């Protein structure tokens, strides 16, 4: 498969950012976010106008692709006017210079049919539909948003979106995509504009306010995830298997496990078993990323941008691994997290200490650390730019060890799990019989 870029352009906001909005401070959580990492998203759209065959032979398909690309660039420009910080650049890990330098847009095409990608999704192949590698130094100094729109010879289309992790989390990614799609719908006269909210620094004051003491240890350092030669695999849990798993995980301590609790506990159990097969008896820690928007007092709008995430960590050192017990640990960790945040107060020193501990975990050779991030219930499948909703939403391009992503399937009832493990570890992990009893390894999307 060859993906060829035919259009590269810097897209700037359709209207200049007012002078009084020229800077936006990073929050403390933004400052600790990875400085060389983009958060990726891929959306695949089927052909809705029955145009087929190659770009070289089909003039109508070429015109249709050009028209789509033109509308996407136009509405991206309009969207950046409302999401103006994302058209700027990060400065000194302190603030965003909202200077309207713009987002990078790439138009591309491939003679590969989209069905080939969807029948056997491959993580390396999927990287071809992103505008750049997700592990890029540009994330901390260059464009904060990059887009690649790839047109297939069958008339289908893939939109690859990358947002710098320095300025936003998965919820920010979802809000931007939702806002862009809403702008495209509004351009057709069938939608309303989405307005984002900013100001995370007022909730989580940045480090600069505490540097007056001259203590050099107060200089923020970004989370440095472990990058190794890893393998990425996709497992899909359908709704019936999830219900069976939830039933198996039920106990007196947790009468109704959530989908995410049951699947996370199973994955953690299999991960621990895999480590022990490799003669590792180290303690095992599961870190669960939490969206703070609903946990704040009062709750924040889902359209609030920035890195508004925290985490809780649970640890097991016992020789016995029980699914019900692991679910109970996850529930207790979440309840403790909610109780902690229910106070509605920001303890800067405690948050700073927590971020530093979290930042050190991936490099601690004395433990096995697994980082879970659930993207379930984000409205990615609602992103309609005027040509229908996506047939598949996915991630690709991550290369950091021991990260697990959970995403909804299109029907909203199943869950796709993406695992990133070292290659020799993955070979044992993916063959686990208990895992395969509840999940299918990389089934066809269509």
Can you characterise this structure?
The protein is an alpha+beta fold. The protein has two domains: 3-205, 2-Layer Sandwich (Chloramphenicol Acetyltransferase), CATH 3.30.559; 230-441, Chloramphenicol acetyltransferase-like domain (Chloramphenicol Acetyltransferase, 2-Layer Sandwich). It is built from 13 helices and 16 strands. It has helices at residues 28-32, 59-82, 114-119, 123-126, 138-141, 170-187, 200-203, 239-249, 259-277, 323-341, 348-360, 423-429, 433-438; strands spanning 3-11, 23-25, 38-45, 89-91, 95-97, 103-110, 145-152, 157-164, 230-237, 284-291, 309-316, 368-374, 392-394, 403-408, 415-422, 440-441. The chain has a seven-stranded mixed sheet with strand order 11-10-12-14-15-9-16. Strand 14 and strand 15 (415-422) form a beta hairpin. Helix 2 (59-82) packs across helix 6 (170-187), helix 8 crosses helix 9 and helix 9 (259-277) packs across helix 10. The protein is globular, with a radius of gyration of 22 Å. Mean pLDDT is 89; it is low at 51-56 and 210-219. GO terms for molecular function: acyltransferase activity.
